[in-house]
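Recap quiz, item 2
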Amino acid sequence: MTKKIKLSELGSLFGSLDIEALEGVKIEGDVELDLGQMGLNPQMAYALGHETVQLAFHLMNISRILGYPVDQLPGAAVQQKPARLSNLIESKFSVARNEEWKTPIQEVVLGATSSDGGSRKSTVTIGGENALPYYFDSPMPHRNHITMDVFDMPINMAKAVKSNYEDVINSPAEWAKKVVRDFGADMVTIHLISTDPNIKDTSPKDAAKTVEEVLQAVDVPIVIGGSGNPEKDPAVLEKAAEVAEGERCLIASASLNLDYARIAEAAKKYNHVVLSWTQLEINAQKELNRKLMKQCGVARENIIMDPTTAALGYGLDYAYTNMERIRLAGLTGDTELNFPMSSGTTNAWGAREAWMISSPLKEDSDWGPREYRGPIWEIVTGLTLSLAGNDLFMMMSPTAVQVLKEITQTLYGLKETEQVNIDNWVSAVV
Amino acid sequence: MKLNSPLQVYKYLPQINCAECGDATCMAFAAHLIDRSKKLENCPPILKDEFKKKYIELQTLLAPEIRQVTIGIGENAKNIGGDDVIYRHQLTFFNPTAFAYDVWDTMPEQELVERVNKISNFRKFYVGKFLKVDMVAVRCVSGDPLKFAGAVKKVAETTKLPLVLCSFDPAALRAALEIVKDRRPLLYAATENNWGDVAELAQSYKVPVVLFSPDLDKLKSIGATFQEMGIKDLVLDPGTYPQGKQLKESFERFVKLRRAGIKEGQKDIAFPIMSVPLNAWLVYKDAVTASYWETVLASVFIVRYADVMILHSLEPYAMLPEVHLRDTIYTDPRTPVKVAPGVNQVGTPTKDSPVIVTTNFALTYYTVESDLSSNKINCYLASVDTDGIGVEAAVAGGQLTAAKINDTFAKANFDLKEKTSHGTLILPGLAARLQGDVEDATGLRVMIGPPDSGRIPGWMEKNWPPKQK
Ligand code: B12
Ligand code: SF4
């Protein structure tokens, strides 16, 4: 029922409707309005008359085009008796892909099988993205991976985590086996914390033995971490790199406050990947990556970044935005920042909400059982960073690992499940 | 926002530098409009008739890309939407995701009241304020409009929080609206089946309304139809599926909608988005698993663009990470979170009370302050000007030094030898390495507290008052 009407006729048609808001508006030229698209509710039309309703609507539109707030239109038909359409207006949604993301993230392989000079059964590949994680613009080529923490000596852990490791806490090799066999770790991180002069001052040679044991215990790729002592780490990591020759381990870490060149040299010599670690500062990250590439000659495919993970509630805002900015810079062409990223997600356990038995503040609502708070703190910290672009997660709680895997692999597209009908969630009994 | 430099905004301002807005010049005021720290209405001259045209033009040009919608009334009203950027570092995100927790009309009355109270009373102290949750969503499970209206009435009597009325049955929505029409509830929801009747409700009761369809073409159609009818306070629910490929697609829809709204300026779908993490309960029945997964879904959509969400779990291990993540994403990255440096009193300190040193990073300061005050420790708390950096980073970065600490007391005219009987300072455990320096610089005795201020009460029992040497 297409009916056309000229704007010049509007005035006479609407003489009866007291439309003050259009006063003073001059419509020049004759515009034809197409009223065909729109149906009418029969009852309403009967009550008000077709024309009035249709025209009222179009008047609203015109007024909108002319920049008049529709609310100012006191047209009787519009305001008092709500008019309605009888059919939905046809519409198609579309949105463009992001054309600014032209630079892919570097792909990095961790671990080496016998055909490549190592002894791992499998390797892990991360990086290669052409878009933010899980975006429709371009599918992520590799899923996220998780490497679980193993320490070379018993350490303090939150109760909820400790209970999982009590039987293996004195044996890094058994500990490593357990996380792979029972908890689904893709990789294992051996933290050589006992080498710290303030802890046990274990010699690089003895620490390297632990690395060998772990390599023998598991056949997944491994990360080798120092104690964080800037004086001692270069020597420890150098020796560890030597005994792990050819395995393409991730050496953690090179940072600006220690002899990164020595660590880079060892990684090059014995075929490993370097973890470039800076503390929540994008420019420092650029600088260190540049130094590793230009000054130390580390190949692009041998660099992963750790821009630092702060826990939920304790600086995660900095960590999240830092990672998101680094990833966006990489995708849009900054070739000093387009490397895969790794997160020390275990840092989440530093938050008091993760480990304290209850709130120290009486005004807080009850914090509930801490056994459940800790793992979810680790999950949410990791998940948030996964959305910012993080590829590899260093984690500790088996529950957290399981849940983070489930959600990241779902968003990645690996999880086939039964279809769920959500149409009636409102009346669901939960 | 269509303008992106103060100069562009300046062109529309009166340009008389009368300073009534509190800025010395119109140009300075223009910069505040761009960063949204002031409103156009702060400039009295532009509200006058002679500038009316410019005012209206500027108002449209300054309007946020995503429409801002208000739910509720009075001081509990919540604005949602109103965003201008797709990454928080580009400006900041406005109007934190509103959390609505559900109740349903088949609950026994007493349980209903308890649950509503639990929702309205939830609080978690953080950086000088309490994190809270925002709304109550009442679900019509009975299918009976009268019963639904009854539940809504009870909820409205129990709390001042804004309400979300959830039913696909227009008759139920109408019955509920009759009860709470003055409280500007959010209607949930119009679909491709009931849209005509729901539109009529939204029109005649003048309330914001959610449109629900996981099919973005349909969602846009319903949106276009509502706008054609003059209904503009819309919220879009593109469906939050709880698992598998459906969840992946849900995620993509959120990203697409927000990109279309902000980056491509598609005004017809530039509305706040709703997510329903509660749907986790459709697949998991065990409360811990369901609460965990609901928190996971909530986290995904807090980060990626939900402006309002409906949640079910009131377990603290679900609510705490949710309110913290929302704060993480919505905290303004432009403003350093600091407190004024100086020496403050906690409780009513005497000459024998301890003097505690911390930094002026708001997170640090308020954490320490609340640990002290809630444990009724009367003391002096010195906040050292570390440029808003926390203890460990400030020690590493050189903002927390012996000289700075000395300065803080000097500027505050706080002479420890005179004001205290013990002449002792307590430093944070993480600043232990400053001990010697501070002793030299101040000539005072310096004690090292525990690494976490939550442990100060226990530490005090053992170490305070200090033993005389
Ligand atoms: C967020 C963060 C940042 C943010 C800082 C934001 C800010 N406004 O402070 C940014 C990105 C700016 C940053 C920068 C740097 N950081 Co930083 N950062 C962190 C991070 C992730 C969290 C710190 C935090 O906010 N904690 C929460 C607050 C509340 O803790 P807090 O201030 O210590 O307060 C607690 C206690 O100290 C105690 N307490 C406080 N006062 C008092 C008083 C008394 C009497 C007592 C008893 C207790 C007490 O109770 C409080 C509550 O628990 C930590 C790592 C981590 N996960 O802890 C690294 C960390 C602190 N940073 C570190 C470093 C090295 C740096 C940089 C030097 C890096 C660099 N090379 O650029 C810079 C320095 C910047 C500067 N000073 O200008 C190191 C410090 C290492 C060290 N021990 O020396 C850390 C530990 C990371 C690491 N593992 O290497 N950082
Ligand atoms: S009040 Fe308005 S006219 Fe006066 S200085 Fe401020 S912006 Fe300019």
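The mean pLDDT of chain B is 95.
The longest strand of chain B covers residues 98-104.
End of item.
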